[in-house]
Amino acid sequence: MSTTRTASLPDRSHHVPPGLAASRLEGNAALDGAVRSMIEQLRAAQAELVASRGPRKELAESYRGWLERNASVRGRASYYPYLGSGLGHGPLVELLDGSVKWDMIGGIGVHLFGHGDPDLCEVAIRAGLSDLVQQGNLQFNADSIEFAELLVEEARRCSRLSHCFVSNSGCMVNEAALKVCQQKTGAAPRIFAFAGCFMGRSTTMSQIGDAAGYRQGIPLNTLVDYLPFYDATLGARSIEMTRWHLEQAILRYPKQHSCLIVELVQGEGGFNTAPREFFLALFELARKHGIPVWDDEVQTFGRTERMFAFEALDLGEHIDVVTLGKMSQACACLYTADMNPGPGLLSGTFSAATSAFRVGRRILERMRDGGYYGPDGRIARLHASFRAGIEAIRGRHPEWFPPVQEAFGRTHDRFVGGVGGMMRFTPFGGSKDRIMRLMHVLFEEGVIAFYCGHDPYHVRFLPPVGVMTPEQFEPVMEIVERSLARVASE
Length: 490
Hints:
Helices cover 37% and strands 16% of the residues. The protein has helices spanning 29-46, 60-74, 106-109, 118-127, 142-156, 170-184, 203-208, 236-252, 276-288, 309-312, 354-369, 378-396, 432-445, 473-489, and strands at 84-89, 92-95, 100-103, 134-135, 161-167, 190-194, 223-227, 257-262, 293-297, 321-324, 331-336, 352-353, 404-405, 411-412, 416-419, 422-425, 447-448, 450-452, 458-461. β15 (416-419) and β16 form a beta hairpin. The longest helix is centred in the last third of the chain and has 19 residues, at 378-396. The two termini are 35 Å apart.
């Protein structure tokens, strides 16, 4: 397995003026040599990780002990018995039980370049020499400015977005976006969101997200009007129906909505997609009534055939606020000049770690310049390989892929879906019990995946599109087929 070698970065991503004490670290031969030696040792260790393998028996007891300690300190066990050794190689990760697995979920989208990318490790090592582990909104270095500038520069190419607030989690930038929209609309109390959406785990975001299990036991004081997401089975009728719901709620609560929140590709909801016409009909109506459009791209960002999903759908001119994170390491809320809030509304002790800023900026640069985007880009080719692999399995075993049961008793035969680096497939009719069982069998066999959707449920892949190749889906699909066979036989 090869990892693309990219040019090294200087020890600081910005230019330190000569004469400062910090300039002694610029172009320092001893430092450069030490960093190169560390990266060479990393590559040597990674050379052992070339395929998945099972756990080592002699490590079983110590591994079980670690998992028990984790369950004790957290109050419950983790979803998977996952505990990394600290070493990985692109899509492969080594666990403390000696096993090596194909990581097809990447921290639910965080690890776009997989595990142990040498270039990103080098950037992080150099960032470790900074005086600040965490940068904030009161004290920060140039890293924070450069990171935000790059995001604004990319967004400006295809939208009206012109300002950026940075924070250290997707949930916090979603909170920032909501405040920006509420201030702009004079504290309008209601929110439009789509059925099946996911917004984060804060008290407010848990209420907006459309999953009853995520808001059990918390007070419900956020007013949300849910809209049906696009239904491909209904086609144009779905567009008409959702627009009608939007219009009726606006008439029922005039001037009471602070924003229309959209995931252009739903993440937790099932990697659901919709055509441009669907969103355009809603955005035009929202604009007519002075309702800001907030595009939540915390999971979507960087994974479609353009860096921003709104760019892929040519919707940039309609977006007032966008939130992003995960693959970017640091998270951000971007907004237009017209939405720029008053002083005091947005701040925070932490914005992000210095390493997050520098590694995130490097990721953005590599994605921008590395041939990932476009209809024949690396992301599109990887998605095509995924689809081909699932279709081949289905061709050999159609009995594992019965019709998928949707709401209101409708069924369909769309067994593979998603877009770009957001991939899903739906065996066993989308049965929750069998999909959940499949998750754990996949893990045992050597593939880390997750689920998405709610009745039907789907298998969710967020592979490391920054480093994974289409050919690497071959061993992944062998494990998928073997795991499906196990579950089907039970």
